Structure formats: C-alpha cells, structure tokens
Amino acid sequence: MKLLKYLLFIFILLVQSPLHAQYRGAKNGVAARFIQSNYQFPLNDQFSENDFYGGVELEYTRHLNRFMNVSLPIKYARPLLPVEESGLKVLEGTVLETDLVFQFKYFREKGFIYPTLFAGFGGSIENWESYNYYVPTGISLNFRFRKHAYLSAKGEYRYSLEDPLRHHIVLSAGVFVAIGTGIPIDPMTVDTDKDGIPDVEDECPLTVGVYEVRGCPDQDSDGVPDKDDGCPKVAGLYQFRGCPDRDGDGLQDRFDQCPNIAGSISNDGCPIKDSDGDGFEDDKDRCPFHIGTINGCPDRDGDGVIDQDDRCPNLAGSTMAYGCPDRDQDGVEDEKDPCPDTAGPMDRNGCPFITMDDKSFLKKAAEKIKFKTGYSMLTNQSKSLLDQIAELLFKYSEYKVTIKGFTDSIGSKTENLKLSKQRAAACFEYLIAKGVTRNRISHDGFGESNPIADNRYAAGREKNRRIEFDLYLEK
Predict the structure, then answer these.
(1) Which residues pair with 60 in a beta bridge?
(2) Between the chain's N and C termini, which has fewer beta carbons within 10 Å?
(3) In Å, how far from its chain's centre is CA 296?
(4) How far is the C-alpha of 75 from the C-alpha of 32, rounded, in Å?
(5) What angle do CA 289, 294, 297 make, to 5 degrees?
(6) Segments forming the whole domain that contains residue 457
C-alpha cells in the first residue's frame, strides 16, 4: 500500500543518527502523519489496497503522568464514502476530523519502542456540510530514532455514533517529536530512593529496600517485603505471608494454641488423642471408643459398611443396599426385591422398566388379535401373536398381566359383555397352555364400554373390537 511506501521513505531519511537515552522534561509533543482511510470495513471484510484513500494528520500530545497522555489529533482526507449498506455505491467526499483522545501507556517509556493504547471522542464534517460523531479506539507504536523524535505508526477503528455506514478504519505513519529541553538520562541508572536498585527494577522506587525483595523494605529479613508481610517485625514463612510457625504443624503461631508442639489444624494446633488405640485420631474417628478399621468403626461382616450403618451387620452385602445382600446390585436388598436377579430402579422395588420397544410391540400385537365375528375362537394369526406375547411375559417374569376384552356396539349389551369376557378368557387359556403361570394372569370383559373409535362407522367398530394387555408390578 502507499502507506508502506511513505513509511519506508521516512525511515531511510531519519534513522541515520544513533539512538539516544530517554529524556526527562519533554511534556508536550506534536506529530505529523500520512493517513490511509478505509470506509469499506466492516461493510466489506475483504481488504483491498484500492479501498484505502490518503490524507494527512496533525496531532498535539500532552504528557499527564507515566501512565497516561492526552492528545488532540486533526485529520484531513478525501475518501470514497459509502451511501448504501452494501458498500457498492460510494461518493467521493472531503472529511475533516478532530478528536480528544486519552493514551494509556502500559509500558514504561524506555528503550527503542514506546507503545500506547488509546480511546476517546471526536467528530467530523463531511463536504463542509454534514456532521458525524465518533468513538475512536486503537493502538500506536512509536520507535525512537533521535533525541526527542520517534517514527510513529497508528491503527485506529472509528465507531460512528450517527450512521453505521460511517464506521471505518484509519492507518497512519509519520513522525512524532517530543518538545522540552530536559536532560538525557539512562533508565538503568535512575535510583530515586538511593538503595542501589534502579527504578526500572525497583518495586518500591520511593522507599529504601533490599535487593532480595526487589528493592522493598524487609525488616525481619524473611524474604517477604513489608508491604506484603502480615508479621513485618517477626521472621516467618512465605506461605503464611511472613508469619512464623515454630512447630511446623501448618498453623501460624498467632492462631496456634500449642505453638511449640506440633498438632492438628482442626484442633487449633494441639495434638489429638486416639482413645481406642485403633490408629485413628479421635477427631477423625467416627467411633472413638470402639476399635475399627473403617474410619475407626467396626465392620464385622467385612463388606465395607460399618456396623452402625449396616442393616445386615452379620451378613456381607452391598454398600448400595446398606450392607445387605443384593445380587443384582440395584440398591434393593434381595429380601425385599421381587426381581433379585434383574437390576431395576429402587422406586420399582428393584424390578426393571419395560422398554419402550416392548411396550410398543405389546400394544400393536394386541390390536391385531382378532376373532371370527360373534365368536371367541382365536384365529391362527391371533395364536401366532399370543405366542410372541408369551415370550415377552417370560422376559418380564416379575410382572403380572390383566387381559381385557372389548366389543363394538352391534347387538345387545348383554351379549356383547358376555362375548368380551369369552374372548379375554380365550387369550388367558392360550397363554396358560404356553407355560405362563396362572397366578400371573387375570382376565375380564367390558363389552361395548370404553370405545376408542366411533361405532357409527365400520372402521371405528373394527378398532373397538379389541383385546388389551396391562402389565404391572404388585406393590
């Protein structure tokens, strides 16, 4: 870009002189820079050299303190200004901008490079008729090449408070000159408090200190500077902010009730007894007067559950079942588990949930069980479906099942009720013959009650002539 060409030209002209030390007393400064403005960003995130247009900037800077400057830059440019959101339609304009900017110096002004971050408030006038207000932010880099002169570069984003089409970036490069007589100093020799440690290395540059704690005072010579030392007149340990721990038990002497005898922190620094002699100190022993192996408590059956918490203290069991036997490890002890060999949730007494796939199969299979009209004789297809239902009942052997029969509304209610009971009984007898135990199954018929479709239509009556299976666990 043209900006880089300008930068190279200035650098060749001015770097002929050797670098000098920093100068004190330069409170003001002026800068002159070439600028390149781009109003296509962020409308168009593809940078192109053709989107940048030149101009000039003059800037006055005032040094406030070692952390901050304030500056007043004035810019003049003739860029292409977008007139629609796409950024494709532009017009050539004249822009004059001025700002009030605060520069934050995160690094000391020493050596070759002097960077700042800046932010502020400003305004512009376009084509000498329309106004806009901005919040400028960015970074500047100053490279010292003469006594008070710096090669200066800036990158700036200008956020418009008036029109999103006027958000833009500005890149600039030029020369910054600090104004002030001053005398040259070497930052490595400045020692304000005269303690032999240069200010650039001294964390307490205004107070006489020692090298071991980077120039800060340390009255007790414990390696903790007084400003961070909780006990500045008594030598102590770094981890206790300079306070002592004479018995080395991990508790500062000022909090230790037995400062000369190592003890337990939980016992205010004093030793703790082991009343039952089982190797567990009383403060950690859940059973301080009974010899034990688990947190100081006995476990007669050796199942990992101490006797006082063990519901079956003489019979090894599972920790999930409070020390009682639990073969399927579901947290329900075998004696209370209807399904002792199949894991299930505790709120179902240790029996498994019926899977969604099996529930769906049972519902669909039941819907397909059919009988000859007016009779309770099972069709071959219905028998095949009942064979599959029997297999599902074997899978969930702890569950019981109720078989319910229903009819449509054709015929008398009395006959329909009788027929529904006969059909439910036919399914019952078939499953018994297939090996399902009789005490697991019950059956009943409900005639034309509880229809699930409209009996006025053939399709509805077909749905109402049905068998339902309800699986459940006895509580």
Answers:
(1) 30, 72
(2) C
(3) 40
(4) 10
(5) 25
(6) 356-472
Number of domains in the chain: 2
Domain boundary among 120, 153, 184: 184
Side chain identity at residue 41, one-letter code: F
Q: Which residue type sits at 448?
A: E
Instruction: Report yes or no on 341 lying in a domain.
Output: no
Residue whose C-alpha is closest to residue 153's, from 168, 163, 143: 143
pLDDT band for 25, please (50, 70, 90 cuts).
low
> Residue 308 gets which letter from DSSP?
G
Query: Which residue reads 């399904």 in tokens?
Result: 339
Q: Which two tokens stand for residue 225?
A: 């500077």
Asked if residue 125 belongs to a domain, the reply is yes
Catalogue the E-assigned strands of 78-224.
80-82, 90-92, 95-104, 113-126, 130-144, 149-160, 168-179, 183-184
Output the domain CATH number for residue 79: 2.40.160.20
Q: Which residue has the higher pLDDT, 251 or 8?
A: 251
Max Cα–Cα distance, the chain, nearest Å: 121
Q: 311 near 301, Cβ under 8 Å?
A: no
Token pair for residue 147? Answer: 């006594």
pLDDT at 12 > cutoff 50: no
Which pLDDT does position 22 carry in this prediction? Answer: 45
- Single-letter code of the amino acid located at 277: G
